[in-house]
Amino acid sequence: VSAAVHVHDRELLRRAREGDAEAFGSFYQARRGDLLAFLRVRVPSAELAADLMCETFAKALVAVHDIDRELPMAPIAWLLTIARNELTDSLRRGRVADDTRRQLAMQPVELSDRDFAAVEDATADAHLLRQLQELLPADQFHALTARVIEGREYAELARELQTSESVVRKRVSRALSHLRSIRQEAS
Amino acid sequence: VSSALDEFERSLVTASRTLHAERAALTQLQATPAERPRPFRRLRSSLFHRRLLVSLAALVVAACGVAAASSLLFPSQRLANGTVNCFMATHGTGTPDLHTLAVGGARPNGQPPVSLCRRWYRLNHYRLNGSTTGPLVADLPLVTCQENPTTVAVYVATGRADQCQRLSEKPLPATYGAAAARLRALQSALLALQNKHDCSSVATLARGTRAILASPAFTGWRVITPPPDPGKHGLFGYALPAGTGGTCGELFAGPPSRMLNIDTQRQTLTVSPGPPRSISLKLNHISYELYTTTYNRCFTATSVRGLVRRWFANTPLRPRFATANTSQGGTYEPRSQRLYMQGCVRFDSAIPGNNNRFVDVLLNAHNAAPLPAGQFYPPASAFHP
After folding, report:
1. Which of A103, B61, B263, B290 would disulfide-bridge B347, Cβ 3.0–4.6 Å?
2. Where are the alpha helices (DSSP H) in chain B?
């Protein structure tokens, strides 16, 4: 999954650099949850997490359009590094920076109830994934998250795993059965 | 219910489009480098440093000019340091409504107000008078007026020379452009000030900044200096390990941002403590490499230390290590998370020592003790060579 995720992210960043602005929007959509989950557990409020996330993406955008820089090999790791630097800088400065957003003439983000829910959901999703990983064998967890959470096609997964579609289907099916049986035992 | 986080995606898309267009324009103007725009300045060449020093001199000269003609330039500077209201009509009051005000209180930071508003009009596809079928405001001719002493208004132009007067407003003063340029020059001057030395103390840098702000053009501006020991006064109640975080002054946010901590609305400049620039730049690069490598590959507690030592071997910083479970409930993407859950140890963060001779490296391991709630780093006593 990792390799495919990185390839997909890199492709989006490459397209953004070449002028497809919507591609960066897609990158934001794809990685927003990861970043919010990463930040939310490190700061005491959803507003701070969202503020840091926005500045992180603004910085990432500037870096993507800086042709002197190479695009990152592992975009999600790169994004988390920027977020971490932002957090550390914020600690030093005593406030969350908005310099890049201001340079880009972006208005401050004022969170609605829906946004608060989105931030908390992102954290809950991260918890859920962790729990799933603890419950399921690695191959089933991999297949289930790729198919159900990332919404990828069986054929694509089969190619990536160098196996047949039916094997991937079986893994997803077993993962679901496994979770069902755990639920029944619990009830 | 609208979502600000979804709105932010649209801002990113527009900004991406603008950055691409700016880069394309930059490429076209390569033949005439003196004219080309520099939206994001880089600090690399000594030629550029010299150019900034020239800007600093120009600012001093400009400041003298301001003193001589203060009655003319003071109001312009207030206006340039203020905000912009972007209207989608030929008139408006600044009060939010669906038909006239598109964006209120935007901060131009020295950009021409018309360019700033066009960006916003394009971003949200504003149409004339807020209609759903009218012409796009971004494509129409625009005019700038002085709405009040600190606010510029941008309207759709009627074509009449007296449009501002008919709205009981003044045309933008002729000196506005110079005042906006002065704000941009201020940023250049401050950048030159910081880059003059690898490390100036917070107090020295704050003093230099105050001297630059002493120009009559920036009367009322304040320099804010956070406490010199962020370990005791960290944001959110978190603390850096004692003796770390740097003792040099920093006017610009640390890498990779390199942006000035300037707030034209509150008229403040923040000087924060940080490491010397040379260390800051190296540390940023090394942190990225270590984070990416240990995110993608499995390292043991021993091998990750070897990796960190190799990266820091060519720096004056000797690593000291502490290990904790820093995930605090968060997860990584599945493959990386699997490595983490299997016991692979990864790099988390590196904070340089105040004496520039050590760096506190925090490692993240699933089986290590978690950091106490509300704590971002272990105490200094937890770090060992």
Report:
1. B290
2. 4-28, 46-68, 70-80, 113-124, 163-166, 176-195, 202-213, 277-296, 301-312, 334-341
**Cβ density class B240-264: b for 16+ within 10 Å, e for less:** bbebbbbbbbbbbbbbbbbbbbbbb
Q: What is the DSSP letter of B1?
A: -
- The angle at the Cα of A160, spanning A145 to B298, to the nearest 5 degrees, equals 70
Rg (CA), chain B: 25
Q: Along the 385 residues of chain B, how does pLDDT read in single tens digits? A: 468 888 888 889 888 888 887 777 656 544 333 322 222 222 222 222 222 222 222 222 233 222 223 323 467 777 887 788 889 899 987 666 667 888 777 777 778 899 888 887 877 678 898 887 889 999 999 999 999 888 999 999 998 889 999 998 999 888 888 888 877 788 778 878 888 888 988 889 999 998 888 877 777 788 888 655 444 444 434 567 778 877 888 876 443 334 566 666 667 787 877 888 888 878 877 887 888 788 888 999 999 999 999 999 989 999 999 999 877 666 666 777 788 888 899 998 888 888 889 999 999 998 898 877 666 778 888 999 9
Smallest Cα–Cα separation from B105: which of B237, B221, B266, B255? B266
Q: Which residues of B touch A68 (CB under 8 A)?
A: 42
| CB pair distance less than 8 Å for B338 and A84 | no
**Rounded to whole angstroms, how far apart are CA atoms A175 and B121?**
49
Determine phi and psi for B86, rounding to 5 degrees. Answer: -105, 115
Phi and psi at residue B56, in whole multiples of 5°?
-60, -45
Nearest to B179 by CA among B331, B306, B72, B317: B72
Contact A37 B15 (CB under 8 A): no
Please name every residue paired with B156 in a beta bridge, in sequence order, or none if there are none.
Answer: B142
**Interface subset of A 7-36, CB within 8 angstroms of B:** 16-19, 21-22, 24-25, 28-29, 32, 34
Q: Give yes or no for a contact between B251 and B261, defined as CB atoms under 8 angstroms apart.
A: yes
- Asked if residues B117 and B138 have their Cβ atoms less than 8 Å apart, the reply is no
Nearest alpha carbon to residue B90 among B163, B147, B152, B151:
B163
CB B182 within 8 A of CB B109: no
Rounded Cα–Cα distance for residues B285 and B287 (Å) = 5
Substitution target in B8, B225, B287, B361 with the highest count of A β-carbons within 10 Å is B8
Backbone φ and ψ of B339, nearest 5°: -60, -45
On whether any CB of chain B is under 8 Å from the CB of A79, the answer is no
- The answer to pTM > 0.90 is no
The answer to whether the complex's ipTM is over 0.90 is no
Taking contacts as CB-CB distances below 8 angstroms, the residues of chain A near B284 are: 85
- Decide if B235 contacts A95 (C-beta within 8 A): yes
Amino acid sitting at position B240: L
CA distance B350 to B363: 9
